[in-house]
Amino acid sequence: MKENIExxxxxxxxxxxxxxxxxxxxxxxxxxxxxxGKLSELASEIGRLANSEKKEAGMLLNDFKNxxxxxxxxTQKRLEQVALDKKLEDEWIDVTLPSTKISVGTIHPLTLxxxxxxxxxxxxxxxxxxxxxxxxDLYNFEKLNLAKDHPARDMQDSFYITxxxxxRTQTSPVQARTMDSNKDxxxxxxxxxxxxxxxxxxxxxxxxQFTQIEGLVVxxxxxxxxLKGTLEVLVRKLFGDDREIRLRPxxxxxxxxxxxxxxxxxxxGGNGCPLCKQTGWIEILGAGMVHxxxxxxxxxxxxxxxxxxxxxxxxxxxxxxxxxxxIRHFYVNNMNFLDNFDRLEKEDTNESK
Length: 353
Ligand code: DAH
Prior knowledge:
The structure is a single chain. 41% of the residues lie in helices and 18% in strands. The mean pLDDT is 92. The protein has a 7-stranded mixed beta sheet, with helices on both faces. The longest helix is centred in the first third of the chain and has 40 residues, at 51-90. A hairpin with a 4-residue loop joins strand 6 (245-250) and strand 7. The protein is an alpha+beta fold. The chain has 2 domains: 2-90; 109-352, BirA Bifunctional Protein, domain 2 (2-Layer Sandwich). The site of 3,4-dihydroxyphenylalanine has 11 residues, from strand 8 and strand 9.
């Protein structure tokens, strides 16, 4: 028995260097210590030994078991380390490599302008109201004091769908809709952003579809002074605290008096430069006092109520504010253009202020 055990030990020592992974090691263990392994084979011989030899044989078998387990453990540790080293090497990451840039969406410049204007007016107690883009002749024109044969309709070439329905040419019909649907004829303070459509040829400053923001206030004793004060707050928010406005007489069928509103040039401060065509002023919107006919057509008594209204092109405001020279930039979704209005960058600079 002793000799057999010695042989078995020698065999183990000879074979162990050939084992290169944990799976082989496990199989190796089964070969020696498994139920039908080599040690069991030797143990089965004990029965045939003389009683006096049995005890020693048992000790020898036990000794082999310990011997094997020692070798097994050290080999297991070594192989585990080898496996770990290999894994670390295989999965090594060069943390100094530049990362792939994840592109984050940006807020469209028109949305930025609309959001800024909405925020301002909401803070002054206005509601934001939207209306349909497919509009009736009644709201787009008639209720706004443009009768069917009114020559002012020539000002806006329209996309008609039927003789009575068209793509709205302005956001002004939202004024009429809001006044009309307000059954109790209570005061109104609204702004209405939205898309409008005109039969224009597209070029640097014209687009067959663009965006307007309309404003309307109806209450008792509303005057041009209220309009002027409101627009001053608006232009200072959009273009800077030092801006002044100038009201020029104009004509819109739905307002009386009608006004064209200019703002002092924010580039040259009013001294004259190419942006303001050397005049010091930049035209930014149309406005006026709501025409009594419009109030009446929408159920408001012009003897009791008066109101002011204004309408501006969001593209024009964004072009002036961000120095954009071609209106078509807004619609082609060129990422190089849109990335200039990176929301995160904006937030970063705000934070560092
Ligand atoms: N609807 C006008 C346009 O499209 C703009 C406008 C002018 C709106 C004067 C108004 C206003 O509400 O009072 O040209």
